[in-house]
Design goal:
Number of helices: 6
Number of domains: 2
Largest sheet: none
Shape: elongated
Helix content: 40-55%
Length: 152
């Protein structure tokens, strides 16, 4: 890494003179885990400029294997989570409106089933079936998500 990659002709962001390591030191100070592909991408873009001490220490510990990967599923980015929640709420309230209207007209929320669900529960079950939620009680997650709109 003897050349400065921000000036190379293949870099489409060369005109911006971006500090590719910006924010990594703060994330390391907070105790966040930074995975290998992200470290590699940022270091390649950084070029031959000096690497901050906190990042160098983290990189050494990462290569030695002393940094453990966090357990569980990686969280969605905040923007994707917000879009997902908006989509689920929209579907839920759309189904709920249709089922309540049907209950008002015909006395039961769904004519295609003999289940004794309330319109709210049936709407949540329909949304959970269409969207990839996890677990048997995922319709409860849909209801919790839809009711949390008033709390935000």
């Amino acid at each position: 890494m003897t050349e400065d990659r921000t000036d190379s002709p293949g870099n489409r962001f060369a005109h911006m003179k971006v500090d590719h390591l910006h924010g990594l030191a703060e994330r390391i100070a907070k105790g966040e885990y930074i995975d290998g592909p992200e470290l590699a991408e940022r270091l390649r873009g950084h070029g031959s400029r000096p690497i901050p001490d906190t990042l160098l220490d983290y990189l050494c510990r990462y290569l030695e294997g002393s940094i453990e990967k966090p357990k569980g599923r990686k969280p969605f980015p905040e923007t994707e989570q917000c879009l997902r929640e908006m989509f689920v709420r929209g579907l839920y309230y759309s189904w709920l409106e249709q089922l309540m209207d049907r209950k008002r007209r015909y006395g039961h929320p769904a004519g295609w089933t003999k289940l004794e669900y309330t319109p709210a529960e049936l709407a949540a079950r329909l949304v959970a079936r269409k969207r990839p939620f996890h677990g048997e009680g995922s319709w409860r997650s849909v209801q919790n998500l839809a009711s949390s709109i008033n709390k935000k």
